[in-house]
Amino acid sequence: MTKYRCTICNYVYDEDNELKPFSDLPTEWVCPVCGSAKTEFIMLTKKSKLTTKDHTVSDVLIEQLAEWGVKYVFGIPGTSTLGIVDAIRKSNKIKFFQVRHEQVAAFMASAYGKLTGNVAACLGVSGPGATNLATGLYDANLDKSPVLAITGLVARQLMGPGSIQEIDQYSFFEPICVFNKILMAKNQTTILATLAVKHSLLDRGVSHLGVPRDVQKIPYETKILPLEGRITNLAFRSKDSLIIKAAHIINESKRPVIIAGFGAISQGINVLTLAEKISAPIITTFRAKGILDADEPLYVGSHGTIASTAAAELVRKADLLIVIGASYSDQTRIPEKKTIQIDINMNMIAKNYPVAVGLIGNSAIIVPRLTERVQNSHNSSYLNEIKQLKNSWLQLIAKEADSSSSPIRAQYIMKVLSEKIPDNAVISLDVGENAWWFGRNFQMKSTQKMIMSGYLASMGFGLPGALAASIAYPDRMSVCISGDGGFSMVMNDFLTAMKYALPIKVFVLNNQSLGMIMQEQKVEGYQNWQTNLYNFDFAKFAENSGGLGIKVLNPGELEEAIDKCFSTKTATIVDVNTDPKRF
Ligand code: FE
Hints:
Helices cover 36% and strands 17% of the residues. By secondary structure, the chain is of the alpha/beta class.
């Protein structure tokens, strides 16, 4: 009865039509269409137990969303969402998480989409609930994360003259969304619900459904629409002739470099196989950090503002870039060079510069096909150079991680966290100095996952991201790395971790300032002004919330604090006193 969707290509495994339940398939089983691992599948729906006879539009809406794989709604109930919230209460398929601010709900849904490739919903009332969602939704929009926003609207007969909490919600959401509709009549319920999920998955962004509060309670019973046959399979690729052309260019190259972006995040092994065959180093964008183990010999770090010295030099000297699923942000700084580009989005091909060959399609399909076509090349002098450059980079990082200096250096914190964070942890990053140091100095493992607010770069993402990670992966440790500025924007929702017993581990790199802005004032010749922060004792705040709080003032206390934090089963804040100065 249960169905599973491949989040890489959308193939649906329906247990009703198969010989084995999904859980009985061996771990080495792969998607029959795109070849992705079993772990890339997500459960769509469980057997229904809904027995109520008094179905409303809200019940149908929630049942339909569940059928298409929505499992979580994050939000705050309110006057104009009473019907929808009651339908979620009655559903045994969708779970509601009540938060303290709608921005956190939207960030959670965005984080969940980035982590799983599946859609979660966030919910807010008309007016302020809707506008509070906006920052998290813009994060999803810019980072191409599939998210559904559900809002209440004032009753239809009140629309127009200016009712309490009434804004022009349709217009408000229009620039944020790939799909934006107001549900005005009961017979639109299943079609709009399915189109909303479909657009968020295929157009990779935010869908919004607004439902007037009177529509929510209209009695309605109808057939729930299945996903199969309604969603495009994404296992497509460019023509063989283009792949052959790309392979020819790679064969001619003396110094190829692979740059992998978030679009290749699940393709680490495939990218490595290509790299090994052609003797090329692998560089990632910030968001693709962790695609391979940091100690993988051909992986040389990230490019751009958080660049490793090795990555910067290898890109500078490259005669060919092979760019896979990267979006050419100004932070990654991919230069204009001879390029082969692979992307699922045709508008991303040659976005900034002309490319020698643009390969449209799913990297899960294209990278192995390209690997088949290229010649084996063992370029030992290039491989030696890569090894040496990587070693000097690692030596520099080790030297920076001075354990004696107080206040504690961020580089040292990253070193200890690299050693202590478990191999299967999910790490949610905030924005600011903390993220900069993580991107540059943290040694990530391919078995870990990391999420961040990439393009919007919104402070306050870290904590909601950790909440979402803890919900999506209850068996894995969820770690938040934040600064004092970003954390204090959303810290009320540490209470949400307590309420739902989500054992998140929050590290607040407390430099008592908006550290990155302080750096920028300095670099651009402005006086340091309005960047000092008057702070909480975040450890005491954790204790007062019912969690565990640990204050770290000296470098010698850090390891023990982390051990204590990781060995408890409760939500924890480790408040680490850090140096606001970068170098
Ligand atoms: Fe697949």
